[in-house]
Amino acid sequence: MRKLIIIFLISFTTVGFSQELNCNLVVNAQQTGQENVQVFKTLERQLNEFVNNTQWTNKIYKPQERIDCSMVINVSNYNSDVFQATIQVQSSRPVFNSTYSTPVYNFNDKHFTFRYLEFENLVYNANQFESNLVSVLAYHVFMILGLDADTFELNGGDPYFQQAQTINNYSQQGNFKGWKLEDGQQSRFVLIDNILSQTFKEFRTVMYHYHRDGLDVMANNEKQGKEAIADVFEDLRTMNNRRPNSFLMRVFFDAKANEILDIFSGGPKVNITEIKDILNRVAPTHASKWREINF
């Protein structure tokens, strides 16, 4: 009997610490004019449970190791069981030896139409399409996992990105937008296709060196960390020369522009002239921020 209790406790502990995400998911239905309808509250509660309680990988995470993230679903139209919405997804990860969390993923997914009946079961299947609601959430979960892993280990996100691509492929059968090339240049299809493409291989190298050689070093040696971050801009320039104005460049700077401004606007001096030149070339839409780097 005692052995059974011990086995039960071990199993419970493993399950309790297996979930990977600490996600705050919000359903905002103000645009519908029906934000007080109970179905939106039920949907929000179910999605929080689904994202946070599903075991997405075989890795064991302690509570303090879970990835902090958020998903905000803005519903613009609701009719019977059909929802038209967008979803803003963000994630961050802690910087070593500091209380600072750095933004890693910041993506506004504009293609998010789904069907949902109140209290319906939400089931994730790694190899089979269940619903567009489940597929979109699962896709972004694996993007969060992949990008987070890439910041700790060079190309560490491979298995998660491959699963995101699998989800993208089997979800095309649902005939919802965002999963195919013809759905535009800022879709889920384009995002995962570009991340796994050799054409944009520098993106993942940058994600690793920016975080591990740059941010994680700054607590002990701020100048060395800043210089390492400056070095990764050369890789971004190489990628931009090969494919100017790429979607991945926008994805990177949507997450990092404000942080880069803060990093190079104080602390030990580095050569900002060349840094600003590269930034203006690879991310001209943030030129107003780069002008503020002035010492």
Give your account of this protein's structure.
By secondary structure, the protein is of the alpha+beta class. The chain folds into 2 domains: 20-148, no CATH class; 200-291. The protein contains 10 helices and 4 strands, in the order H-E-H-E-E-E-H-H-H-H-H-H-H-H. The chain has helices at residues 2-16, 38-53, 132-150, 158-171, 188-195, 201-218, 222-242, 247-263, 272-282, 287-291, and strands at residues 21-28, 67-79, 82-94, 101-115. A 4-stranded mixed β-sheet has the order 1-2-3-4. Helix 2 (38-53) links the parallel strand 1 and strand 2. Helix 3 packs antiparallel against helix 4 (158-171) and helix 4 (158-171) runs antiparallel to helix 5. It is globular and about 60 Å long. Mean pLDDT is 93; it is low at 1-17. Keywords: Signal. Residues 1-18 form the signal peptide. It comes from Gelidibacter pelagius. This is DUF4835 family protein. InterPro entries: DUF4835 (IPR032274).
State the helix count. Answer: 10
Strand order of the largest sheet: 1-2-3-4
The level of helicity is 40-55%
What does the main sheet amount to?
4 strands, mixed
How would you describe the shape?
globular
What keywords describe this structure?
295 residues; alpha+beta; 10 helices; 4 strands
